[in-house]
Amino acid sequence: MSRPRPPVPGFFQHLMLLWGLRLHLGLNQGPGKSRLLAVAAFLGSSAPGVLLGLSFFKLMRLPLIVHSNVWPYFILNLLCFVTAATWVTWPLLSAGVDDHSELSRYAAFPISPFRLLMGSTVASLFEPRALVFYAPLTGAAVGYASRHRLASPWLAVVLYVLFALFCAAWSRVGLYTVINVLRAKHSARIMGGGMVAFLVAASFIPPIDTSWLTSVGEAGVGALDMSLIINAAVALSQVPPGFFGDGLGQLAHGRVGIAMLEAFGLLFFTGLGMTVAYRLLMRFHRQAGGRSGGDRGDGRDSDPFATTGSRFDTLLRREVLDLWRNPRARLLAAVPFILAILLKLLSGRDLFVYLLGGSADAWVMGGLSIYGAVVIASTFSQNTFAYDGHGFAVFLAAPMSLADVLRAKNRVQGVAALVMAVLVGAFYRVYFGAGTLVDFLCAMAAVAAVVPMLLAAGNFLSLYFPVKFHASLKRRDRVPLTASMLGILAASVGCMPFGHALRAAGMDGPGWQSVAFIAGCAVLNLGVYLATRPLAMRLLDQRREIVLRAVTRE
């Protein structure tokens, strides 16, 4: 007599299993791993969300806001738009090509691809970054509800849930669009052409008028033309992300029917986003099966190692080629330039000039340059062997020292970060037509200070938190949250000299003494890197088998 088949798990069972597995991976459970440290890292990375939520909660309870007929709706609708835009563009800003692996990882499980996509999307709402993303809007919505009687509070909760699902769905559309572009045969040309087209299109859009900043500074908020705020609030309420903010306003006025229609609107656009995301994901997995990722060129290319003069030169050239062909690196290289274009399009520099005075260009140029360097250096140095895969076994079998491999990787990643920073700084100077030589040197010295700290931290993180990277992008193990937080800490320490020097310079702008101070700290950080590298090399020999198992596992 045959035994009855066990029932197929329901959606919520699948969701709980997926959450449990993500928590297991995120906390990096295993021998020798500190659960307490991992949990502390999770809570620490989510802590900014609490502060942001409380800040906007208090903002919405200020008498000036509560008694206004315009400001509450403008703030809510603006936060809705900013929250949704952040969700959707995050895959681009973070080169997030590692959040889509469930479909291939669980292909043999008794779950349909669409249900798995739904579960993965819902699970993404409870990651640390998500908690930070929608914390400001959550605080503002609760603060608004605490000062205005809502006709149907349950409908407000439904609107909030639908808004969160809307953001999660369209963030998947952004993610799967990015990974499809990265997997395209000519991904570098597509991204380069797209950036040029974006630059050309942005040049035809008139800049935003920021003259109101001066009037506000002289006469306060009352000097603002309220028709501008009213028109902006109305415009933001008419796009799908604004349905939540406008729905709260309708409930405050007792118009339950209109709020219900906006809930259906959010539901419709969420379903549309999930449909588009599913089609993009299936298209990606169909294409990712046959090739190993990136445009590798054709067979007519000559041997790139034919002219190397030594074994170390060969290692250097190999790392340069791997970085050049890596689709994630291509995306990371494009982001700072896109941010600069958006900054000019939105007249963001004028706002920084108003807030920071003569230090504005140093802050903005330095911030973009540091961002460009950090995303390149940290992404690859903090998991430096992940991209070798089975090639790491070749290093172990070859007649060479692993110390040379680590040294070559450090040199290529460090130089790539510095080159990236120089290109971003030069682009800022030409594109904005602003910034002095001192501003540029401050930015470059800041990069020179942060890169050694990233490399020093990355060497140890690569040994204690190695994960596998699949060149096809079809699947990638997540970097543990503990490693991510330690990497952020290293980047913060490296950026401290830059921040301290510009704060000391104040509104007058940095001088040559600022450049000298940051450069001195850069030399000190370089000394820290050189002092810690021998220890990392010794540990690499001791942990070679652990690293090999981590980067070759399937």
From TrEMBL:
The keyword Transmembrane applies. It comes from the Bacteria. This is Uncharacterized protein. Keywords: Membrane, Transmembrane, Transmembrane helix. Coiled coil: none annotated. The chain crosses the membrane at residues 37-59, 71-93, 154-178, 190-208, 256-281, 329-346, 353-377, 413-431, 443-467, 479-499, 511-531. The keyword Iron-sulfur does not apply.
